[in-house]
Amino acid sequence: MPANLTKEKLEKLGYSVDLLESDDGAIKPYDFKTPKRFTKDNVRLLTGVCECFAKTFATRLATIFRSSHVHADLVGIKERSFGEYLPDAEQRILMALIETKIKEGNEYYTNHVAVSFPNDFAFWVINSLLGGDDKAGDPERNFTELELQFFSGFVTANVVPVIEASWASYIDVIANCVDVSLNPAANRVISADATVLDAELLVDISGVAVAVSFCMPFILVEKIISNLGNRFLGAEDSDKIKQKRSLMLENIKESEVTVSVELGRVTLELGDILSMKPGDVMTMDSFTDSAVTIVVNDKGWFVGELGTFNGKRAVKILELL
Question: Do 209 and 284 lie in a common domain?
Answer without folding.
Answer: no
